[in-house]
Design goal:
CATH architecture of the largest domain: 3-Layer(aba) Sandwich
Strand order of the largest sheet: 3-2-1-6-4-7-5
Helix content: 40-55%
Number of helices: 11
Order of helices and strands: HEHEHHEHEEHEHEHHHH
Largest sheet: 7 strands, parallel
Mean pLDDT: 89
Number of strands: 7
Distance between the termini: 56 Å
Structural class: alpha/beta
Strand content: 5-15%
CATH class of the largest domain: Alpha Beta
Shape: globular
Length: 246
């Protein structure tokens, strides 16, 4: 039996990367609580805990108090099967950007199999290329192109509202079974990069954009555990054969 709507929302994690202003953390916590979300994760916040965060939380102290603080995005995504990053820099990206509704539909469908994270970047610089590369899908909020600078707390509110509205209004097809979690996927990418360097296909001194392009390629497939095992088995066979050469 598939989880009911409240359970799906309970599997959504909001991740704020390197937030500069503690007030925005509190505003995000308030936005989450109003829409029934509870999992808040902070990656290297500049100031937290902080009285400004508590003031802006406006009563959402349970969400704020249970917020997990992590040193890296990898740690923040532990246990998730999908990460959806947010970006406004469409020119810099070579992948389609989802609308909030499309992102909500995908997230809630995948939440039937495991936890899903929405990743928001720093207020000034957004998500770095490395952080974006750890996301399997990207989303943008279609704001006024002449003034598209959306406050972090407001961005979280838009996405939290869309998640709740979509969860109440729609049903979701059951996702592929046994999806690999993001830690397993990252171990595969590390293994892939090591093997490509070892066989001479990737020059670590001049890697260019090979690994980001391979990440995009595999992200489109939504890898399952069995597929990860097959791919890593192939890499291990290549490693073994290469090591046997004289």
């Amino acid at each position: 039996m598939l989880p009911q709507t409240p359970s799906l929302l309970s599997r959504i994690r909001i991740v704020l990367c390197r937030p500069s202003h503690p007030g925005n953390i509190g505003a995000a916590a308030r936005a989450m609580k109003t829409m029934g979300l509870a999992q808040l994760c902070l990656v290297s916040p500049k100031k937290f805990p902080h009285e400004d965060a508590e003031a802006m939380a406006s009563g959402a102290f349970d969400v704020l108090g249970s917020a997990q603080v992590c040193d890296t995005l990898e740690e923040a995504l532990a246990g998730c099967v999908l990460a959806i990053g947010t970006s406004t820099r469409q020119r810099d990206l070579q992948t389609a950007l989802l609308t909030p509704h499309e992102a909500a539909c995908q997230a809630l469908s995948e939440a039937q199999a495991g936890k899903v994270a929405f990743v928001f970047g720093n207020e000034t610089f957004g998500l770095s290329k490395e952080e974006l590369a750890r996301c399997q899908a990207l989303m943008t909020i279609p704001a006024n192109p002449e003034y598209s600078s959306l406050n972090l707390g407001a961005a979280v509110q838009v996405m939290a509202y869309e998640l709740r509205r979509t969860a109440q209004a729609e049903t979701f097809a059951q996702p592929e079974l046994d999806a690999a979690d993001l830690a397993e996927v990252e171990r595969f990418y590390a293994h892939l990069e090591e093997t490509l360097i070892r066989i001479g296909f990737l020059n670590p001194a001049s890697p260019k954009r090979l690994m980001p392009k391979l990440r995009r390629l595999f992200s489109r497939t939504r890898l399952q555990r069995e597929e990860i095992n097959i791919l890593r088995g192939m890499l291990s066979a290549m490693d073994s054969k290469n090591n046997g050469k004289h």
